[in-house]
Automatic annotation (TrEMBL):
Residues 172-292 form the HEPN domain. Pfam families: HEPN. PROSITE patterns: HEPN. It comes from Vibrio aerogenes CECT 7868. The lineage of its organism: Bacteria, Pseudomonadati, Pseudomonadota, Gammaproteobacteria, Vibrionales. This is HEPN domain protein. It comes from the Bacteria.
Amino acid sequence: MKKTLEHLPEHKQQDIQAIADILRDTVDEFVAGKSGKQSGFKIQKIILFGSYARPPSAEGKPGWVYDPAHGYISDYDILVIVNRMELVENLKLWKLADDRIKRRIEKIPVGVIVHTLKEVNQWLREGQYFFQDIREEGIELYSIDSRELSVPGNLTDEERREIAQKHFQKCFQNANEFFFVYETALNKGWLNNAAFQLHQASERFFACTLLVCTNYLPKTHDIEKLCHFCAQQDERFLQLFPKENQFHRRSFHRLRRAYVDARYSEHYEITVEELTYLSEEVEKLKMLTEEVCLERITSK
């Protein structure tokens, strides 16, 4: 696995190293003074993957996008490999790390996924192509484990196509069902319920794309993070839910919050105007999801 960031500008190298340092420091602080199992919690590897791990094209075009004027910004994508499942599942710890990273890296979204070494190696042996790409293209930022990731198993083209087709049939239908229920709730005037259903439709369309294209789905309900993961597969996803004005930003923020707050918060609010605009964006998401997924299925 590669270990250099030399293809990136110096300030981006500094950003990425800062992310790795924050992740390590946060775990080290948590472990300090602990006893029992928790005293043995460790980060084994930190790997950069996705847009910033890719070298420039033959024409010199970078693999990443930074166009804040139009809301097109590639994430720093980081895989953290740890030694215990209990550490993976410590959501409070990773939320703390995420908050610290956001304070340090203000202009670039950062996507962190956390898995055990056992999980990653098992998925590689099973031919899980999301992790195959990370193994082939990723850049190792930190490692205390000299072992290489497992050699990937080989799925036939037909097996890949069959897996992708099953994901598409299940997820696309599921997303459409949530979209239908959203329209019913909106017509009834149940605005908070409509917001939740629209969030779920969005989440399922993003999930459909990721499962078809990578056979992997991050453990998150954050539709902004899912959108950026999808943009690794097709940059057109960055054109969805633009942030060009306050109305756009406020509407999307309320949709992001809808997974929890639309159901449980007495202070949550959303308007018909905002929902109407958001549903138009979700319709675009639906069309793009179908196009990208069918292209991938036929090309596998």
